[in-house]
Amino acid sequence: MTTTLPAATGFLAAASQDTEIALRPTFAAQGSRTVVRENRGRQHLHIVLLHGAAPDGSLARRGDTAVLLAGELYNQADLHSLLPDGFGASGDADLVLALLDSYGVHAFRLLNGRFAVFAVAGNRALLATDHAGTVPLYVTARPGQVTAATEAKSLAGTSGTGGLAGTRPMYALPGVCQLKAGVVLEIDIVGGMTDVHHTWKPPLGRRILPEADATDLVRDALRRGVRARTGTDTPLVVISGGIDSSSIAALAVEAADGRTIDTLAMGTERHNEFPEAGLVANHLSTRHREIVVSTADLLARLPHTVWAAETTNVDIVEYLLPLTVLYLRADETSRRILTGYGADIPLGGMHREGRLHALETAVSHDMATFDGLNEMTPVLSAVGGHWSTHPFWDREVLDALTSLEAGLKHRHGRDKWVLRTAMADFLPHPTVIRPKLGVHEGSGTTAAFSALLVDAGVPASHLRHAKHLVLQTLFRRVVANGEHPDAVDLADVVDKVAGRQSQSVS
Ligand code: ATP
Ligand code: MG
């Protein structure tokens, strides 16, 4: 059963033949730290665990094998069924260790979860991401030492040869690589040789189903995805009143079995979706709160968003900025937070497209290019001390949604038809038919970021490039150089970029 936070939410870990490994743990994620130093076989391990409560269950060892897991698994019952009867309830890392015994590296093909794993078995290091890489994992390796972390900033300055198979290089961090989604990277610690195993790929084929079968498939998968993430907790669902988050809230109410769940909506003084979110909260009888943030306060968190998400992608940062602010203001105590994030990627909701070939082109493109954007990173909520999880990117939900033929995604004149129809009995009719409004639009984030640059003198034609330059500057400072985001003068960064832009125009 899930509890408030997973046993570990992040880590920095090294396996080396050298007993004097120097690590510099730097995390945007809040949490207690536990340091473990021990020998496994001929390897010396140095681990810094980041956790909310007790970290038991995040580290399992036997003989010359150790498994470290940040995050959580959602199909524990299925996984337990693969093990001998005597295998009692234990942490997710124990489960992975036991599965490694039977299945070797293929154990990772069995997991449905939100995790990053660092394991050592004899002279091999095994690094693994979940199917969608929702917990980013970074690595540096050189013969004799492998170092991995759930935040790239912790690896700044560690030396690595770079160019590892199954990874991509990181901007402004030489030698640091990010593991791809759905990958196990096997590294020979002594010699440095690598082997890559792919554990998941987005489905490319499409299923043709009768309407009722398709809606049942989606509802059942989503119901399981929400239930696995809700556990015994009273969850908090961040809602906009859009169909995606409203569906999650409705299923969380069902999973909570009579307990009242919390919902939270955020808006700025210029834009909000409070009436739409309020309608859903009322309908579901949740304990609902609204948070109003000034546009200035919203923009002031740009450095924090880059610090947490470790990306320079303009679209992604504009989606994540309002959520960063929301998470920072959510609650004093650590919460398990469910979101409706990510439904539009397999359903093509962002594209507002009715032509089936164009909708399928958009879905196929988005599913082929999500990797490395870090939009699901748990660090975003961890800067506020929370753990976020996204049922739409549960492995079974994502498989089901992606694989439906486009005519089930757009049907009878409605986008996201299959989801809307699946949830029609759970939500008020205006919510079920409400057109999509992106979080960056509903909060006015894109408009506010644009206005910040235009007011500083950036010509409208150069806006997008200027935004990218701002994010690159922020990345270099708060990720690569380790500055705290509170120390960054955003106005100064913007002025410098604007100065360069106006020079390049004149
Ligand atoms: P739709 O895509 O139909 O608008 P949605 O609003 O639920 O549905 P997105 O707009 O894609 O989904 O937003 C992504 C997620 O971010 C939401 O599902 C929700 O969990 C969270 N979110 C978005 N806007 C807000 C908001 N104003 N307050 C709280 N959470 C929000
Ligand atoms: Mg929305």
Please, could you describe this protein's structure?
The protein has 506 residues and is an alpha+beta fold. It folds into three domains: 10-198, Aminohydrolase, N-terminal nucleophile (Ntn) domain (Glutamine Phosphoribosylpyrophosphate, subunit 1, domain 1); 211-439, Rossmann fold; 447-501, no CATH class. It has 19 helices and 18 strands. It has helices at 76-80, 92-103, 211-230, 243-256, 274-284, 295-300, 302-309, 314-329, 344-347, 356-369, 379-382, 395-403, 406-409, 417-422, 429-432, 439-442, 445-455, 463-480, 490-505; strands at residues 10-16, 32-40, 43-51, 59-62, 65-73, 113-121, 124-129, 138-142, 145-149, 167-170, 173-179, 183-188, 194-198, 236-238, 262-268, 287-293, 336-338, 387-389. Strands 2-3-1-9-8-11-10 form a seven-stranded antiparallel β-sheet, with no helix packed on it. Strand 12 (183-188) and strand 13 (194-198) form a beta hairpin. It binds adenosine-5'-triphosphate (ATP) and magnesium ion (MG).
